[in-house]
Amino acid sequence: MARILVTGMSGAGKTTVLGELRRRGHHTVDTDYGGWERPDGTWDEPRMTALLSAHDSVIVSGTVQNQGRFYDRFHHVVLLSAPLEVLLQRVADRANPYGRTPEQCAEIAGYVRTVEPLLRRGATLELDGRRPVTDLADTIEALTRTS
């Protein structure tokens, strides 16, 4: 049983791998949905604190400005990464509308340069988001058995 954060840039595969883990029966929370994020791009800290206090085993995904404040409450912080070209292609092809405009693509490129290195420093494990989703889920699922 472990609390795991899956983080990374838009298009890295967080939502996809979380869906596979949910399908396998794991308790998951995708903080891109359901009001977890405040308008300023941060997690609702009291809500996240309550979630992590209430569950010894949960897999959370998201990338927000204040996630580092919670790293000590996760057993593992997994960074999904992929080359910029892959990220941009994925965001262009998905249902979520973010990443389709030239301005949003430039924003993603800027985040890869500035935010991803910070995520890498805080991660306990980095996985190549180009790997098959079942392989990524297998690796993260194995982490649920370690804490």
Task: Please give a structural write-up.
By secondary structure, the protein is an alpha/beta fold. The protein has a single domain, classed as Rossmann fold. 41% of the residues lie in helices and 16% in strands. It has six helices and five strands; from the N terminus they run βαβαββαααβα. It has helices at 14-23, 45-54, 84-93, 102-114, 116-122, 133-143; strands spanning 3-8, 28-30, 58-61, 76-81, 125-128. Strands 2-3-1-4-5 form a five-stranded parallel sheet, with helices on both faces. The mean pLDDT is 94.
Architecture per CATH nomenclature, i.e. the level-2 architecture: 3-Layer(aba) Sandwich
The helix count comes to 6
Instruction: Please identify the top-level CATH class.
Output: Alpha Beta
The level of helicity is 40-55%
Task: State the end-to-end CA separation.
Answer: 7 Å
* Widest β-sheet, arrangement of strands: 2-3-1-4-5
Largest sheet: 5 strands, parallel
CATH-defined topology = Rossmann fold
Strand content: 15-25%
Number of strands: 5
Overall average residue pLDDT: 94
Query: What radius of gyration results from the CA coordinates?
Result: 14 Å
Order of helices and strands: EHEHEEHHHEH
Q: What is the CATH superfamily?
A: P-loop containing nucleotide triphosphate hydrolases
Instruction: List low-pLDDT spans.
Output: none
Question: How many domains, in number, for the residues?
Answer: 1
Structural class based on helices, strands and sheet pairing: alpha/beta
> Based on CA inertia axes, which overall geometry fits?
globular
